[in-house]
Design a protein that fits this description.
Length: about 100
């Protein structure tokens, strides 16, 4: 349906933001090209959520505010991955992360 098409567009935009092609954020540098995590940032594709509840709303909040004191990762996550994302871009990248398999 129309909503699904819109969702696919949103996820595609979120993918571009995650990978640094749009918006200036470099999410993939800490979370990995495949979002499965690095030594710096956690895996975003599993069901383990350390800093939010794994819902789209929770993920959106984390993207917006960052993680000043991570529970496991060695480095803090700056708000919006250090970029100045628009509200639509925040929603898109959060929707992308939520779609990766671990979202609730």
């Amino acid at each position: 349906g129309a909503a699904q098409g819109g969702g696919k567009k949103l996820i595609a935009l979120g993918d571009s933001i995650f990978h640094g092609q749009v918006g200036g954020a470099t999410c993939y540098v800490c979370h990995g090209q495949d979002a499965k995590g690095t030594g710096v940032g956690p895996n975003l594709t599993d069901g383990e959520w350390l800093n939010n509840d794994g819902t789209l709303k929770g993920i959106t909040g984390t993207v917006q505010s960052g993680v000043p004191q991570p529970k496991k990762a060695p480095a803090p996550m700056p708000p919006m991955g250090g970029a100045s994302l628009s509200p639509d871009q925040v929603k898109a990248v959060a929707t992308y992360v939520h779609s990766l398999g671990g979202g609730k």
